[in-house]
Each structure stands twice: as C-alpha cells, then as structure tokens.
Amino acid sequence: DVVMTQSPVSLPVTLGQPASISCWSSQSLVSTDGNTYLNWFQQRPGQSPRRLIYKVSNRDSGVPDRFSGSGSGTDFTLKISRVEAEDVAVYYCMQGSYLPVTFGGGTKVDIK
Amino acid sequence: EVQLVESGGDLVQPGGSLRLSCAASGFTFSDYYMEWVRQAPGKGLEWVARIRNKAKDYTTEYAASVKGRFTISRDNSNNLLYLQMNSLITEDTAVYFCTRDVWGTGANWGLGTLVTVS
C-alpha cells in the first residue's frame, strides 16, 4: 500500500499569516493514465470532511483562493496564504492513484 | 445540489451484521463511482470500499481490513448506495461516510452514520 506521511502533526498559526502543510508518498503518485491523484481535505471540528484540492493543484468549487496545492511525484504541499479563523481544522492528504486509496495521518491547524 | 444522506448505523455486538444505506440526489447516480470512507472515534480517515459506475460494470474494490466481510452495492433505480457489513469486530467502530467521486475520491460527502461494535 502507498503510505502517506504528513508534517507537521500540529500547526499553530497566527491569523493573517501563511501556513504550509507537507505530504509525502512512499512511491510516485503518477498514475498509469498520467494523472496524479493527490487530494487535500479539510475537516472542521464536528463536521464531515470537505475536499479542497484535487489532482495536486485544482481547487474544488467554492474553495477560497487562499488555498493552493502544489507538488509532483512523491512530494506535495498545501498552502494557506493568509489564515482565517474558519480555517481551524484537521487537514488530510489522500492518494487515489493506486488502490487501496490511502490518507495521511492529518495536520491539526489552530490559532496561536 | 448534490446530497448524500447516510443511515443504518447502530450499536451491534461483535460478530453481528449491519447494512448501511446512502441516499443520493442532485446528480445522475449511475454515472459516478461511489465509495465508503470511515473514521474511528478521534482518529483519521480510512477508505473502505468503492463501486464503479455503469461504464465500468459496477465493479468493486475493498480495503484489506474489510475484504470478505463487507459488500458494497448500489440500486441505481432508487439512487441508493449500500454497505453490507458482516462479522463485525470492535475495530469496525467508526463513523461511516458515503462519498461521490469526481476527479477522484471525496468530491462530496454525507454527514456520516455511526456504527458501534461492542
């Protein structure tokens, strides 16, 4: 199985400041169809997960443009350009290039 | 508007069975891959099962932890997704989410249904 590793586990941030979460996969996520199925999810306290980013860098509908995804191969990053109070959540990366689908362990973002 | 509404979660004894349902609306159900993802209390997300769309003959895939015990299925006439869970163990305790695939897993999620095995 592809192992997904996230860092850091906990990320205290100052409102208005940027934040960055890293995600590494145990093997390249370039799929046989040439796509890289690396998604990012946000799970606010008490809520269902919400997908923010699909295929590395594509924002889902309604996702604020302060969220961006980047990376390739085995190394990926989710960036929040200016953290807002509503961004307090756990963030998960997920690979769908190979079965079984696997998730990172999560990064908890809260306000300093 | 896409809506996914799970139901069927309950308290069940180890070795028991349960069937979860997910009612889908707001899209052409048969066109999409559908999946179940679970989250144990206080833990992260774990993919459980996938059922593909009509174009892929509704083929299925499972996580190793549930293969042989769980069965994913769909009723395209009534826009329903199911997860039949047999031989339940305490480690299956989790909130189970129904999700729709668009460019990959998790484009849309339901609110989840809680399964407690104890």
Short account of what is shown:
Chain A has no helices and 11 strands.
Order of helices and strands of chain B: EEEEEEEEEEE
Sheet with the most strands, sense and barrel status of chain B: 7 strands, mixed
Strand content of chain A: over 45%
The geometry of chain B reads as globular
The chain-level mean pLDDT of chain B equals 97
The helix/strand series of chain A, from N terminus to C terminus, equals EEEEEEEEEEE
Q: Which radius of gyration of chain A do the C-alpha atoms yield?
A: 13 Å
**Could you list the spans of chain A in which at least 5 consecutive residues all have pLDDT below 50?**
none
Structural class of chain B: mainly beta
Poorly predicted regions of chain B = none
User: Residue share in helices of chain B?
Assistant: under 10%
The separation of the N and C termini of chain A measures 36 Å
**Helical stretch tally of chain A:** 0
Broad structural category of chain A: mainly beta
Q: Give me the Rg of chain B, rounded.
A: 13 Å
Describe this structure in words.
The complex is a heterodimer of chains A (112) and B (118). Helices cover 0% and strands 48% of the residues of chain A. With 112 residues, chain A is mostly beta strands. In chain A, the strands form two sheets. In chain A, strands 2, 4, 5, 6, 9, 10 and 11 form a seven-stranded mixed beta sheet that branches. Chain A has a four-stranded antiparallel beta sheet with strand order 1-3-8-7, with no helix packed on it. The mean pLDDT of chain A is 98. Chain B is mainly β and 118 residues long. Chain B has no helices and eleven strands. Chain B has strands at residues 3-7, 11-12, 18-25, 34-39, 45-51, 60-62, 70-75, 80-85, 94-100, 108-109, 113-117. In chain B, strands 2, 4, 5, 6, 9, 10 and 11 form a seven-stranded mixed beta sheet that branches. A four-stranded antiparallel beta sheet of chain B has the order 1-3-8-7, with no helix packed on it. In chain B, 41% of the residues are buried. The mean pLDDT of chain B is 97. Classes of the chains: A mainly beta (112), B mainly beta (118).
